[in-house]
Amino acid sequence: MSVGLPLGVPLLICCTAILDAAHAKSNGLRPAWARRVFTPFHIGIVCELKFRGSAAALRACMQRRDLILLVEDSDDDVFLFRRAVEHSECDADVCHCGSAAAAMQHLDSLRREKHPLPRLVFVDLLLPNLRGTHLVTWMKQRDEYRSIPVIVITGSAPPRTTADLAALGANAVMLKPTFSEQLVECIGAACTFWLKCCLRT
User: Fold this and answer.
1) Contact 125/145 with Cβ under 8 angstroms?
2) Tens digits of residue pLDDT in 89-127
3) Overall pTM surpassing 0.70 (yes/no)
4) Which domains does the chain have, with CATH numbers?
């Protein structure tokens, strides 16, 4: 059995509790729940936590940001990528893996622990040991990851390479610009397109 609350109320009561605790701390007081002062919002929190479990209720209250997985072995490019996402219109966090093998382990770990999967994956074509094509093939052969858009970043993209990547299931191929300012602009545009303009699947 669960207590039915209007849409948006769990997030609202969660934010109310956080703001109440911050206000109490700044004024040298204990939070309202510690002073046994309950408002309708606090009563809602008690009901929500009682019937749905504290951890589950708090997770439901949190507004999650989008997650981008970057698979890149160049520290300089990782820095530029993070800067591009920060300056874009996307409300997203960047998770970095330095190899295809590390990315596969990371994705499987997220799935096993039931954490949100990335909404978008950028992978460098020329990675150490396993190439970026290996990761693309691995993801597109698995139902859990097939719907995640994968953008392959490469320094050169002849027609044959682009066609081969498309056949493997890559959603796009991005030519890595020569200048850092152009790289930041291209990454920001790609993130905005895939995370803000495209519908979730």
Assistant:
1) no
2) 888 999 999 999 999 999 999 999 999 999 999 999 999
3) no
4) 9-61 (no CATH), 66-197 (3.40.50.2300)
